[in-house]
Amino acid sequence: MSTLFLLRLPRCTSRLGCALCAVLAFVACAVRLHAANAIQWSAINFPATASAGSNISFTAAVTNTGDTTWDSGFYLELKDAAGTHLYYPSISGIPPGGSTVATFYLSLPFAPGTYTYGFTAMRHGYEYFGGTQTRVVQATTTAPPPAPPAQSVVWLSSYGFLSVAAPTIDTNWSPSPSYKLRAKFPNPADSLGWHATDRRNNKGLELEALPPPGTYYPVTLYWLRYDDSGNTLQEIGPGSLRSVTIADPAVLLSSYWFNQTVRPTVTINQRLPKNYKLAVRLVNTGTNAGLADSWNNDTRYLDHIPAPGTYTIEIFWQKYDETDTTIIDSGVPVPRTITIVDGPNRVFTAAGYISADDSYDEEGTFISREYRTDYHEIYVPVAGQLRLFGAGFSNRGLSYSLGIAK
């Protein structure tokens, strides 16, 4: 069944004597319609102050006030004052009227100062909606007050961070080489726990060998004192119990619906060292073929695009050893669906000439020119959305509108 669309061109009057001619080209693409999206920001629990260079986590409560359910393409975007995109928590699965709480992770600049960040809702590949919310944080260098070793406090620079951005462990005193700071995570498979610090006197150093992403409690932070040989444990300091959340970086594609000639790019919300690689692989072809081969390929195009069709993919990061040959760690694979079409989008074109009536006085002198309202029919043989483009020239500019005949 065909659908009839009428294009309405407005009237305009000019008293200028120059000739005027314009040509319109209208293109209709068969793509999926989407409904109006809207959002209400109920609360953003953004800290007013934090340590410079630290990794912080916080939440935002939002409500879907639009008329469509948020699917897997809906995210909240966090960006800095320069417009750099920093984090994209998903808000999928929320129907109209429903609410959710999203968690953000942010690495603050190392320089103390005041920093502004913006929060926006988006539908990936379509639009931003709901305006931008801004929040300000004061990054400081304030540390806990000094205390003697027996009452020392051991802390992490952040208790909510990305798995590729480990926090540092620190204390409020300067231990001798005989001391070691310890961060012990609970581990159901080992009663001794999961230890993320392995170096001697590791004050101010990043944690090592982090457990998988997740929320852990209790994480015990304390110090150990060894003898001069460094082999015999002599004393264990008091421990403090904390809750720690580790999140995987979000690996995204710039598009999940594309044709073979317009490949999407792959990106991540955290700058990775050079020994990391973003991985995109097909999981329903029987070959587990990879789509991303370039090293540290943030914002690079996918390789090895398969034949047109709908595929399930997994996107994640991988960490290699110093030789770039052996995988030593990887993120949690996140499933996504992509659709590849054969060649450019189908288009339908219609063009028309704008006619005009000239007016003259009794002596035959030109007075004005009036342009008629013209209608051009476009028959689209498939249901979908019309994307309208116009081309033309005029001494007053050209405008047009699209009406659908019922």
Task: Note the topology.
Layout lengths: L2 E6 L4 E2 L8 E7 L9 E6 L4 E3 L3 E10 L9 E7 L4 E3 L11 E9 L5 E11 L3 E14 L13 E3 L3 E3 L5 E4 L7 E9 L2 E6 L9 E2 L7 E13 L6 E4 L3 E8 L3 E3 L3 E3 L5 E4 L7 E7 L17 E2 L7 E12 L6 E4 L3 E8 L5 E7 L2 E5 L5 E6 L3 E6 L20 E4 L2
Parallel strand pairs: 5-11, 13-20, 22-28
Antiparallel strand pairs: 1-32, 1-33, 2-31, 3-29, 4-6, 6-9, 7-8, 7-10, 10-11, 12-14, 14-17, 15-16, 15-18, 18-19, 18-20, 21-23, 23-25, 24-26, 26-27, 26-28, 30-31
Name the descriptors.
five-stranded mixed β-sheet; 50% strand; Immunoglobulin-like; mainly beta; single chain; elongated; six-stranded mixed β-sheet; disordered N terminus; 406 residues; 4 domains
Summarize this entry quickly.
The chain has 406 residues and is mainly β.
Tell me what the structure shows.
The protein is mostly beta strands and 406 residues long. It has strands at 3-8, 13-14, 23-29, 39-44, 49-51, 55-64, 74-80, 85-87, 99-107, 113-123, 127-140, 154-156, 160-162, 168-171, 179-187, 190-195, 205-206, 214-226, 233-236, 240-247, 251-253, 257-259, 265-268, 276-282, 300-301, 309-320, 327-330, 334-341, 347-353, 356-360, 366-371, 375-380, 401-404. Helices cover 0% and strands 50% of the residues. The strands form nine sheets. Strands 13, 15, 16, 18, 19 and 20 form a six-stranded mixed sheet that branches. A hairpin with a 5-residue loop joins strand 30 (356-360) and strand 31 (366-371). Mean pLDDT is 76; it is low at 1-34, 143-147 and 387-406.
